């Protein structure tokens, strides 16, 4: 969604989100004085910001570290419920878009393959379960555009949202060119997301191909599932002491990025020596951490609900230091892939590193020698 000059600078997602929401509020309300409006807007935003971390009992870092010890009690779920940021923008209970069946647009294999390629990098889709993803693919339809075509006009009601397969599209607000999409990206989500008139005009500069999804499907599948997911992971994320280092908004982004995985009793989750693709939070059940030692494996730790593992290899960029198995029944995990880990868990890095120092000293105790689990050279 960037113009040539803005593409060189990395804009943090949080900044984009806040500024976009502010811009929309400004555009919709059209107040006489921008600065007065901005001062008021951001004061309100600050006043309504959910209270986090510091008032919670036992939220200090030393407890976070101890809670990862095999013998420690799993941390309790906090009683102070934080309101999800998302809930303020969207309330699925109040959403009456739930009636009727979802449209299905039949596609050839070739079309479907192109569509999958186009939506591959859409963040909004990445966290969908397989079944929902198939619903989304079924519900999207192709739209060919010609140079000069208006796809969206500012002020209109929102009908569809679009993922770009090809073509160049220019975005105008009040007839002023503000950005350009170059053969990739998506647009038209704001009006559907916030139930507002179109915030901008989008016009095709070249011929191209878009994949569209109607408002109802968008809200039903994407919004509802994102909302449910945030609700579902809210408890887990609030129960992981390390994540208290995150802002509420950051924790919600984390919820969006998590993927649920289930393992049967005895099943291997991580294999020592493998390359790492992500880390895990334990939603339910217990896992056993084991290390190879003279042709056998010995258990070095047991972890339970609210604890995490698999972070070590991501932090040190080394192979997995240990194997991890589901024990004592079904284990439910929330998986965070390495890209999301790097994008979202920066604020927790210090705590994770201290915890890793703790592994080192345990290692020394158990094996009597330094096994170099964290040496990154
Ligand atoms: P929509 O449903 O409102 C117009 O229809 C679409 O243009 C909008 O969703 C976005 O997907 C897309 N502000 C608002 N809408 C934008 C912007 C934008 N850029 C792209 N769209 N910007 C803020 C300008 C003050 C530009 C941000 C780089
Ligand atoms: P990983 O990505 O290396 C295996 O994959 C995971 O097991 C590892 O991340 C940690 O999250 C987890 N030493 C090394 N890894 C451990 C340990 C551990 N405990 C859990 N993991 N020690 C146990 C300390 C109580 C020290 C070794 C004796």
What would you note in describing this structure?
It contains 13 helices and 14 strands. The chain has 377 residues and is of the alpha+beta class. The strands form three sheets. Strands 9, 10, 11, 12, 13 and 14 form a six-stranded antiparallel sheet that branches. It has a four-stranded antiparallel sheet with strand order 1-8-3-6. A four-stranded antiparallel sheet has the order 2-7-4-5, with no helix packed on it. Strand 4 and strand 5 (176-182) form a beta hairpin. Helix 7 (130-139) runs antiparallel to helix 9 and helix 9 (215-239) packs across helix 10. The protein is globular and about 70 Å long. The model is unreliable at 51-89 (pLDDT under 50). The chain binds ligand 1OR (2 copies). The site of one ligand 1OR has 18 residues, from helix 1, strand 4, strand 5 and helix 8.
């Amino acid at each position: 969604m960037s113009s040539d000059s803005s593409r060189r600078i990395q804009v943090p997602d949080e900044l984009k989100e806040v500024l976009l929401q502010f811009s929309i509020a400004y555009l919709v309300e059209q107040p006489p004085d921008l600065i007065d409006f901005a001062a008021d807007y951001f004061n309100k935003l600050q006043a309504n910001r959910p209270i986090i971390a510091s008032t919670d009992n036992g939220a200090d870092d030393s407890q976070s570290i101890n809670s990862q010890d095999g013998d420690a009690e799993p941390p309790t779920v906090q009683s102070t419920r934080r309101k999800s940021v998302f809930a303020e923008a969207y309330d699925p209970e109040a959403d009456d878009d739930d009636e009727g069946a979802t449209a299905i647009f039949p596609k050839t294999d070739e079309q479907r393959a192109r569509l999958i390629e186009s939506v591959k990098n859409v963040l909004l889709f990445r966290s969908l379960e397989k079944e929902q993803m198939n619903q989304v693919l079924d519900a999207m339809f192709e739209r060919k555009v010609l140079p000069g075509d208006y796809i969206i006009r500012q002020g209109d009601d929102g009908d569809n949202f679009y993922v770009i397969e090809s073509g160049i599209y220019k975005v105008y607000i009040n007839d002023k060119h503000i950005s350009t999409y170059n053969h990739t990206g998506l647009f038209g989500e704001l009006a559907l997301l916030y139930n507002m008139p179109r915030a901008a005009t989008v016009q095709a500069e070249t011929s191209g191909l878009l994949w569209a999804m109607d408002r109802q499907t968008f809200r039903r599948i994407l919004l509802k599932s994102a909302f449910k997911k945030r609700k579902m992971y809210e408890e887990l994320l609030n129960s992981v002491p390390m994540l208290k280092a995150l802002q509420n908004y950051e924790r919600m982004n984390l919820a969006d990025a998590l993927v649920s995985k289930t393992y049967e009793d005895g099943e291997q989750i991580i294999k020592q020596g493998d390359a790492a693709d992500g880390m895990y939070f334990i939603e339910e059940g217990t896992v056993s951490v084991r290390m190879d030692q003279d042709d056998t494996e010995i258990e070095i730790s047991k972890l339970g609900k609210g604890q995490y593992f698999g972070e070590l290899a991501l932090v040190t960029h080394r192979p997995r230091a240990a194997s991890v198995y589901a024990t004592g029944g079904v284990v439910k995990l929330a998986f965070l892939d390495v890209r999301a880990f790097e994008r979202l868990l920066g604020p927790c890095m210090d705590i994770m590193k201290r915890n890793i120092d703790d592994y080192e000293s345990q290692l020394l105790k158990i094996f009597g020698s330094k096994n170099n689990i964290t040496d990154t050279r």
